Amino acid sequence: MTELAREIRAPDAVPKADNALGWIVYATELGYAYTGDEYWQTFEETTPYWVLHGHPHWVRDRFHWFARSFGGARPSGAWAKHFSIICWPITHAILPNDLQQELARVLYDIRHQFSADLLASPLLLGQRIAAASWGATSRFQNLSQNPLLLGQIATAILLEGELGSEGLLLPDTLARIGRDLDKERREREWLRSARRYAHDRARFRGIEQISSRSAPAGTPVLAARETIAELGIEPTLLLRPKDSDRAHWSVHLDIPDLSHLLVKFPTASVTLTQSRSRVTGVARWLASGRVLNGTQVELKRWPRSDEALVQFERPAPELTYLLRTECLLRPGPSWLFRVASDGLAYELRAHQVRPGHKYILLTTHPPLRSPVSRPLSLECEGVHGVLIDVPSSVQDGFSRELQKLGLGHAKTLTVWPVGLMPLVWDGERRAEWLVDDEPCIAIRSDHDCGSLRVRIVDLRDVELVIPQLAAGVPKIVALPQLPSGTHTLSIRGIVDPNLAGELEVAVRAPRPWVSATAAKGPLLFDVDPAVPTLEALWDGEIRIDLNGPVGRRLQATVKLFDRNLDRPTISKVLPPLELPVSPNDWRDHFWRNGRSSADLQERYDSASVGEIVFAAEDLGTFTLRCEREPIPLRWVFKRGNTLRLIDDSGGSVAPQVSRYSFEAPDHPEVSPGMLQDVLRGVSTDSAGGLYVAATQGLSRAIIVPPHGRLSFADLRAQPKVDLARGHSTAHVLTLLAVIKQWATARVTGNPLSSSRRREVLRRLCRHVFFLLAGDTWDRAESHFESSRAIVGLEQAVRGRPDEARLVRMMMEQLDALAAESCEQRVARVTGALIRVLRLPVPMGPDVRGPGGAVLHKQDRSNPSHPEHLTRFALQLASDPAMLTGRQDAELSDAVRRLQASAAIARVARFVVLAVEHAAISRPTAAPPIYGGWDWQER
Question: Do 789 and 872 fall within a single domain?
C-alpha cells in the first residue's frame, strides 16, 4: 500500500481508466481510516495533485464500473443516498476502524441470540445486528442499512474463517480487523466472548452462501400475547419519596427493555426506533427509540385499567394488539407496595403483608380510614395512598383492620433467593435472573409442615420433593438453568394441599448497557433522547433528569475530544449541584457554566465527541457520551471568524447558499460567488447573520455573530420585517418557515449570537400576530414594547365586549397564570374561552361515578375540542418554532382556523405578553423566546 500511495501522489499521476483499480484501492484505504469527519479534505491533503487532475465524481464512476465488472459491493440505504460519493470507498473499506468497536459491542450484546440457523445466513445475522443497533451511533446505523454486507462481515469475524465462512472475507482483511480490535482490552474481551458463543452454536450447520434468503415475515398477531411472558417485559410500578419525612411520594412507571421486540416484530422496527412514544399519565412525548432501552417515567395521572401504558405516534398493527391486551396496569382497585431498605417502594403481586415491614397501599377510591394506616400525599391525580407500618408482632385486632383494607397477613411459607442474588427481588414473590444463572432459593415455614412438592409449573421435568420441613429451619433448593421467559415456582404440601406458595421467576438475556439511563436503585439518570448527539448537547436539546437522595452532591465534568484522540482536548469541571436536578435546572446550569465558557466554545467546532461525567460521591458515576452527527452538508466556524461549508453529498446540483442579516431576517441575500467562497473558507461579514446551505432536500444553517469593534448600540439588533406581502395563510406559513430556519440554526461564537437570534424570533413572532390579530393590535403591542405598560394591550380590545371580558379575567388571574406550567395555562385559558365565547365542546361517552351518578365528560382527544386551538395559539404566540415540526397540511389548517378566530389569537397573545410581564424569570443563559414560557419544562 505504501508503494501504491507513493505512485498515486506523484505529480504525473493523472486519474484515468487504465489505472482505475489503483485509485479504487487508494480511496478505499482512506475510507478504512474515515472517522465521520471530512473525507475529501483528507483526500486532498494527502493527495497534493488531486485538485489539478481529479474530481470526486470520477471516483464514484470508477466504483460503479468496479461493481458492474467485478461484483463489488453496492452501498444502500438513506445514508448512501445522502453521501452519494464517499459511501463507495467507505463501504469497500469493509469495516472502518472506528466502527469495529461498535460491532464488537453489538455482537457481545446479542451473543445469547446466536443459533445455528442465524449464523448460517449472513442476511439474517445482519438484520439481527441492525435491529440491535438502534442505540448505536448514527455512523454504525448507516452501516446497518446494508444488512447483507454487515452480516457477511460479522459472520467472518465471529467464525474466523471456519465452518463455511472462509469465502466471506480475505484472510489478510480478517487478520487486520482482528489486530485492530485487539488493541483495546475491552473490545478484545467483547469479541472473544461473542466468538465463543458463535462457535458453540454454529457447529451444527455450515454457512449459507446465498443472498436471496430473507428474514422471517414477522410474528403473527395471535402470538403477540406469548411475547410478554417469553420476554418478561411487563411494566411495573415504583414509588419514590419526595422529602426526607416520606410524607410526599411520586409514582413512577418502570418500563423494562423493549429492544427484544425488534427481533420478534421486525416489521415494526420503524415504529420502535423512529416513532415517538407516550406513556399514559405523562403529558410529554418521549423521543423516538426512548422506551427501547427501558426507562422510568413519573406519572402525573393514574392510568385507567383499559388504557395501554405505552402508545406510539405511528403504531404498527401487531404492536397495537400487544400493547392493548398486555401492556396494562394490573387489575385494581388497589395496589400494594413494600418500602425497601433503599427508601423506594416496590410493587407487590400479592396483597400480603409481613411483620416488621412498611407498606404503601394505593387505591383509586378514597381510602378507608383505619387506625393502622396514615394518609400520604401523592403527586399523581386519580389515586390515593396510605402508609401501613406492620409491627413485629401482629395481634388479632391489627389483622382484622388489615382485612378491612383488603390485605392478608402472611403466616405460612417464606421463600427468598440465596447464593447468587437476582437482578430484581421485590421482597415477596418475584425475582429476576439472567439465562446463564443457576438460581437458588431458600424455603422456611413457621411450623412443622411435613413434605413439600416444588416444581416449575410450565416445565414438566423440573420437580423436587422435600421429605420434611421443620419449623424455622430453612431448606436450600438449587434450580437448573431456565429458558428465557416468566416461570411460576409452585410449592405445595403433599399431606396438606392447603399449604401452598408461589414464586414468580423471570429469566431474560442480559441487557446491553445503555448510557442514557440508570433506572434502578436510589440514583436515577434519565436522558432523552437515548442516543444524543454532540450538537443536541451543545444546543440544550437534551432532557437530562437526575434523581437521587435529597441534598446529595453531584459534580459534572465536561470533556471534548477530537476524533481518534484518547485524551480530551479540554476538560472542564462545572460547579456542584444538589440532587435532585430537574431537566430545566441542568439545562440552565450547563448553559451558564459550560456552554457560555470561552474555552469550551473554542474547542467545540473541532470536537467530534463530547462526554459529561456525573460523579455522585459514593453513589457512583455516570458518563454520557455524545458524538457529532455525520451529515453530508455542514458548516464549520473557526477562530478568526472563518466560515466554511463542507459538502460530502456528491450531488449533481450544487448547494444553494444564502445569508439573512439580523436587520432584515426574512430577506435572503444571494451573490454569485458566495458558494465558492464558503467552500474554500471565507471571513464572514462583520455584521454576522444567518447562513443557509440547501441541496437535495437537505438544509443546514448557522448563525455567526457580528465581530470587529462594536459599540453599545451594536449589542442589540433592530430587525425589520417586509410589510408588503399581504395577510394570506401562505404568507403566515412562509414566515413560520423563516422562523424555523432561525430557530433551528446552529449558534456559534460569543453569546451575542443567541441574544440576537432571540430578538429576531420575537420580531418575526410579533409580525405573525400582526397578520392574525390586525393593525390595531400591532400598534398596541408596539406601544407596549416601548412603555411596558400592560394597560395599552387591554385598550386594544376595549371595543370588543367578549374579548374585553376575557382580558379582564386573565388580568384578575395573572398571578395564578404566572405560577402555572404551560399546560396548566392551556387548560385555564380554554375554560375561559369556552365560557365567554360559548365555543362548542365535543363530549365523550357517559360514565357512571360514585353512587351511580351519570357523569358527562368532555372529549379532549377530539381535534375539534377548543383546547387544541388554544394550545396552538399559545404556542404560536410564545414559541412558534416548536410548531414547524407538524405536517404541512395540519399546520396550514391550524393557521386558517386561527385566522377565522382572531379573538382567540388576540387573547392568546395577550396572555403570553402579560405572563412575561408578570413572571419572575430565572437567570438562564438559554432563555425562552418569551419569559415564563418554557414548553419543555416538566
Answer: yes
Phi, psi of 381 (to 5 degrees): -75, 145
Q: Helices in 838-922 by DSSP H: which ranges?
A: 866-878, 888-899, 902-918
DSSP 278: E
Sole residue written with cell 400520604: 376
Are 653 and 735 part of one and the same domain? yes
Looking at the predicted structure, is the pLDDT value of residue 93 above 80?
A: yes
- Our CA dihedral for 149, 154, 155, 159, rounded to 10 degrees, sits at 150
Q: Which pLDDT score is estimated for 907?
A: 93
Task: Please compute, for residue 670, the number of CA atoms within 13 A of its CA located in the half-sphere on the CB side.
Answer: 9
b/e sequence 40-49, b meaning 16+ C-beta within 10 Å: beebeeebee
Q: Which amino acid is at 804?
A: A
What is the span of the domain harbouring residue 579?
Answer: 517-627
Give me 457's grid cell. Answer: 409449573
Q: What is the pLDDT of residue 635?
A: 85
- Cis peptide leading into residue 549 (ω within 30°): no
Rounded CA-CA distance 756/809 in Å is 34
Q: Which residues contact 390 (CB under 8 A, 6 or more apart)?
A: 353, 354, 355, 356, 357, 358, 359, 398
Using alpha carbons only, how large is the chain's radius of gyration in Å?
A: 32
Count of the separate structural domains present in the chain: 6
The verdict on 800 and 930 lying in the same domain is: yes
Q: Which residue has the cell 437567570?
A: 923
Count, residues in the chain: 938
Does residue 741 share a domain with residue 781?
no
525 and 538 in one domain? yes
Count the Cβ atoms, other than its own, within 10 Å of residue 571.
14
Contact 738, 661 (CB under 8 A): no
Query: Which of 627, 651, 680 is the endpoint of a domain?
Result: 627
* Any domain includes 226: yes
Q: Are 855 and 848 in contact (CB under 8 A)?
A: yes
Specify the long-range contacts of residues 395-402, CB closer than 8 Å, at least 24 apart.
398/372, 401/370, 401/371, 401/372, 402/353, 402/372
C-alpha 876, offset from chain centre: 25
Q: What share of the chain is helix, strand, coil (3-state, %, to 5)?
A: 40, 20, 40
919 pLDDT exceeds 70?
Answer: yes
Q: How far apart are CA 91 and CA 142, in angstroms?
A: 10
Domain match, 81 and 128 both: no
Q: Does any domain span residue 125? A: yes
**Do 917 and 809 reside in the same domain of the chain?**
yes
Cell numbers 446491553: residue: 512
Q: How far apart are CA 773 and CA 771, in angstroms?
A: 6
Query: In this model, does residue 903 exceed pLDDT 70?
Result: yes
Is 405 within 8 Å of 384 (Cβ atoms)? no
Residue 707 is predicted with a pLDDT of 76
d(CA 127, CA 148): 8
Half-sphere exposure of 912 (CA within 13 A, CB side): 28
Pair 128, 190 in one domain: yes
| Cβ count near 642 (within 10 Å) | 12
How far, in Å, CA of 141 to CA of 578, rounded?
Answer: 37
Residue 681 in this model has a pLDDT that exceeds 90? no
- What is the rounded distance in angstroms from the CA atom of residue 443 to the CA atom of residue 426? 16
Closest CA to 687 of 596, 767, 604, 752: 752
Rounded to whole angstroms, how far apart are CA atoms 812 and 814?
Answer: 6
The SS3 call for residue 24 is helix
Q: For residue 933, is it within any domain?
A: yes
Strand order in the sheet with 413-418: 413-418, 440-445, 475-478
Backbone φ, ψ for residue 600 (5° rounding): -70, -40
DSSP H or E stretch at residue 58: helix 56-70
Q: Is residue 196 part of a domain?
A: yes
* Angle made by CA atoms 705, 709, 711, in degrees to the nearest 5: 90
Domain boundary among 627, 659, 691: 627
Q: Is the previous residue joined to 630 through a cis bond, with omega within 30 degrees of 0?
A: no
pLDDT in tens, 646-667: 887 777 778 899 999 999 998 9
